[in-house]
Give the backbone structure.
Amino acid sequence: MDGLDPARIAEFAVWFIVFLFSLTLHEAAHALAARQGGDDTAYLGGQVTLNPAPHIRREPFGTLLMPIISWFFAGWMMGWASTPYDPRWARRYPRRQAVMSAAGPAANLLLSAVAFLVIALLLRAGMFQAPQLGLSISHLAEPASRFGPDSMLHPAAMALSIALSLNLLLFVFNLFPLPPLDGSGVVSGLFPDSLGRVIETLSGNPMMSLLVLLVVSRVVGFVYAPVLGFAVALLPY
């Protein structure tokens, strides 16, 4: 069966490691920004850390089960985690809430930039080349043909490709200004007396949040595809 193929299992392992690290970095950035802004809620919960364990304990379905399910049904991973904060702090310091909300997507953008730079450097050094079978989100580069199939550059190339494409997706997806996505926290923090009140009302409706996630997941590709395409076009193949 394809699901038991060793290459497929190896790809799943690389995907899961990169996904979990990306999600952990995202939530740790939220928690750190909140603490720097005066809210210790997430810090006291142990979430100012790159150790995924506290984030998994808080959202086991979103961090473990959902990525596995989506991998086998869609061929890529989706999931979620969450960072607790004091809503009274957010209402008192809306600009700090905006910074906290933006910190997660910013961390994903930083990680994608690092992956891009490493891929570009290895392409220029002749250690990586363009994939011979075509580009995909898991294969934006591959080891040069002189490297054998057992070279550790193969999982490294896959991990860097996923880190670049996945974190760009997380950045774009989370910046949609609708609850429960981070973009809504940015907007409500910048405009607390107008849009912020509307967003706070919508945030209290679980069905509305579910509808937002379904709609955004359908339309995000129209924004993400050109962003990823632009990044790939800059790689020195």
